[in-house]
Amino acid sequence: MSTSTADRVIIFDTTLRDGEQSPGAALNVNEKIEIAYALEEMGVDIIEAGFPISSPGDFRAVQRIAQEIRGCIICGLTRAHRQDIDAAAEALRDAAHPRIHTGLGVSDVHIRYKLRTTREEALQRGVEAVRYAKKFVADVQYYAEDAGRADPEYLYRVLEAVIAAGATVVNIPDTTGYTTPDEFGALIRGIMENVPNIHRATVSVHCHNDLGMATANTLAAVRYGARQVEVTVNGIGERAGNCSLEEVVMALKTRRDLFGLETGINTRRIYPVSRLVSQLTGIPVQPNKAIVGANAFAHSSGIHQDGVLKERTTYEIINPRDVGVPDSEIILSARSGRHGLRHRLAELGYTLDEEQFEKVYQRFLEVADRKKTVDTRDLEAIVEDEVRMFFEETYHLEHVQVSCGDHSIPTATVRIRGPEGQVFCDADHGAGPVDAVYRAINRVIGEPNELIEFSIQAVTEGIDAVGRVTIRIQADEPVKENGVERRVFSGRGSDTDIVVASAKAYMFALNRLIAARREAGG
Questions:
Q1: Which CATH architecture is the domain 396-519 placed in?
Q2: Is the dihedral of CA 158, 161, 166, 168 positive or negative?
Q3: Which CATH number does 10-281 carry?
Q4: For labelling alongside 102, which of 30, 297, 413, 514 has CA 20 to 30 A away?
């Protein structure tokens, strides 16, 4: 598998482990598998698939990814505990290229208050964890947690000891995003100069974005000898997030004159993978996000537009096509027909079977009848709504009608097709149109739950914009899904009518809850 070389940076993707720790970003096993396949296709070297001992669902996800993804190193995270390492070894048993990632804190605040031990005892526990992990796999990565706030001399001793014990990679995390680029670069330089056996291991860095410097710190580390970077798609992760895969990869590619380094990433897959991760986690990408934001290659200033039209490089340092963003669009309307739609979907990287295509085409016609044109983001929202479902739909919303106003009681009527093909029609009123729709749906389906989160995002611009609704509902009692007891289920829906989008999102969440209850035998 991939090994470190002087002119290559290894991409260690932790979207499925650290990225999933973003609040509200829980993924089921099938969703994780889809992201893992996309990461493999994009060319990442290592996929950190999860923390196997944390839950049966995480164990199963790591196990499935290890069984199915053959082109990447598959990594499982552990604490420096034998039971953690046992769980990771078992989950990774079928991996073509397994790696166990274990470690301990090295800063005094972690050693004293979190581990409640001494420096010497922590060092010995780390060495023992590496030796134990080596019994199961040849490839062991050791993380020196909170290295950014550690005593450098102690950090050097720890790294020397774990490398001597067999660690093939040493991970230097700026766990709290505390350091600046100058400080973090100097830390890596110090490691390269003061750890006698550092040449026997790859130096990796894992930077958080609490002060907005994760990418800058990572690139500073690379300049001083780090050859593995730990990143997530869209920079998702704990608190303010992790270093963004797309930012580091494109910085190295765009400024090869400065870094003289390359990666194995197929950069044309960056934007499609970004959209996939955003859609499946329910975490939107901010419009001004570097590389993958909606405005990353948009120009509103007349001066900028004039310059770009004359010569793209006047205001664009990256060709949008290099990251999978089309620089021109076919303008789609209701008269485009199936051929035009299929061509545009293919340009966007979607491969749909006939049944999926027909669903997308019918939704496309509905949207095109309401809008003059249907652009890229409209199409992405349509595909996400019609194709991305990982459970059997029990109830299907066929029609929703709402009556409301400042002097009337919001009232909704819904028509829903049931599991046996029977059609139910009912109505109810509520505090507003969305509340009325949800009450009417509840009268038909009768699945007890509480709406705990509701958000609306405009997918496109203008008064006729497609809107995406993301919701979370809480079941009245826990339901087992993929071996994990959970009460909260998410749903999403998009439409030019935000009330209809809200209804679709609610039906998505309810169907997901019902499917989980059915699988659990409830």
A1: 2-Layer Sandwich (3.30)
A2: positive
A3: 3.20.20.70
A4: 30
